[in-house]
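(Structure overview)
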Amino acid sequence: MQKVLVTGGAGYIGSVLVRQLLEHNYRVVVLDSLMYGGESLLDLFNNNNFDFVKGDIRREEDIAMAMKGVDFVVHLAAIVGDPACAKQPELAKSTNLDGSKLLYSIANKMGVKRFIFSSTCSNYGRMANPDIMVDEMSELAPVSLYAETKVGVEKFLLSQPKSNTCKPTVLRFSTVYGLSLRPRFDLTVNEFTKELALGRELVIFGEQFWRPYCHVVDLARSVLIALEAPMEKVAFNVYNVGDSSENYQKKMIVEEIKKFIPDSKIKYIQKNEDPRDYRVSFEKIKNELGFSITQRVPDGISQILKVIKHRILLNPDNAEFKNV
């Protein structure tokens, strides 16, 4: 059995990915500082193929302990999102940028074969031409500290010597949504659905700006596909992760929610300046790796509505369900 280290494995995407890896007969070790708690991993301690190291990707000794006998690294750990990075900029830089570089350097030294880095489509910033979708060859124009740190790590990884034992692959994730063992309601689809399901008026700024969206289950699946793809295909390569038909404006997401909640109360506030506005093409990952999504935005809306309606979470407004 091959062994995979997942950094940030207790998080929103990580807790889903870890279970997928175990189901596909990998041994998994999670390295996580538990900034948002570790309840998402509780049941996994019953699995002999799971191990956990509490630690920080900025500490060499923590990384070395977690990386013993590891074949592949999936690097998810980060201060995630624009608000969280803006609130703690020094922590964001040291974790997202310096920690990522340290992690890769140790992985290469310890003979790890593959290094999957979770980047973001936020790197594209704002489309130069709104009539054309951006793709992996498009110029990167980060407009937030979060995206700047991701672009910095991408440049570092892709500039490594091709002779290195550890071959990096960059996955630029769409804006994520859906249910996870570590729920989040500070993400657009999840937040909009929760607010309207609770009967509140939803105030939306800049309803016309575009983003691509992808369900957390499918983002996790893309990591598995990248891990199992032929090395010569994915080594030193970059893939947007999502589906070209899942680019939405905020007002389009609201229209999907209104199909479930027709009497939704919406208030639009005009905003003509938004630094991020991008529609993304996902043809490369589809054509080269055969990746296709299994869930779409309406599926995620339906799932969240059920959780709210049946009070699966007693208080979805709790701070624990947000990154800030």
